[in-house]
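U., I forgot to send this yesterday:
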Amino acid sequence: MLNISTFECLPNELIIHIFGYLKPAENFQSFFDCNIRLRKLVKQYVSYSRHALDKDITRFSTLHSWYKHLNFNNDGVTFYMVPSKGQQARYSFDPCISDYNGIHWRFWQIRPQLTDDRVAQISEKYPIKLNPLFATHGEARRLFLEDGEDFIRRYHPSQYELLATTLFCESYMNIHKDYEYSEDIRNIRKIIGENERKRLRNIIQQAAHSIWKDIQELEDINILTINFNT
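Result:
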């Protein structure tokens, strides 16, 4: 009599290895609703794509209008993140969506309105703060206005030391009135901008990791079925 083996007869180690050949969304689509064992394996061993997250961060930073509402007050404007199926639309009139099925990260300035309040609460636990330097089209000149001086002092102390005796020194600027437009200031502004974008990207990556880990604890939540109230 023939012994017939099925996929479910495979040991956990081999199934987890197979997961590595599939995209995260494909694993959730294929195995989440098969049985309790496969669901637990998917929840425990399938993670989001770091590459996809980086692309979602870049995509969000290239929007053409929302950055105008960012500032440096209290470290920036609060946003929330949620993983779900499909890319976030760039505009209501022109969504520019190229992937409707993969797992992507979406960003909101207000608390996400989700059908499952547990996921919304997790997102709310890990807010991120963004400022004008995050956006590709952000206005770097605003760095030296509003609360920019205090922001630079706390997050970019090396550059602040250079500015404290020049641009941020009233007596110096009374003599060197055009220093704000000098090559020195342009270079400092560029360095701060590059370092700040790296810092913010790292914050977003840390928040995504924490959010994903917390959602993993909710055994009945399939990332692909996280829905938003309309």
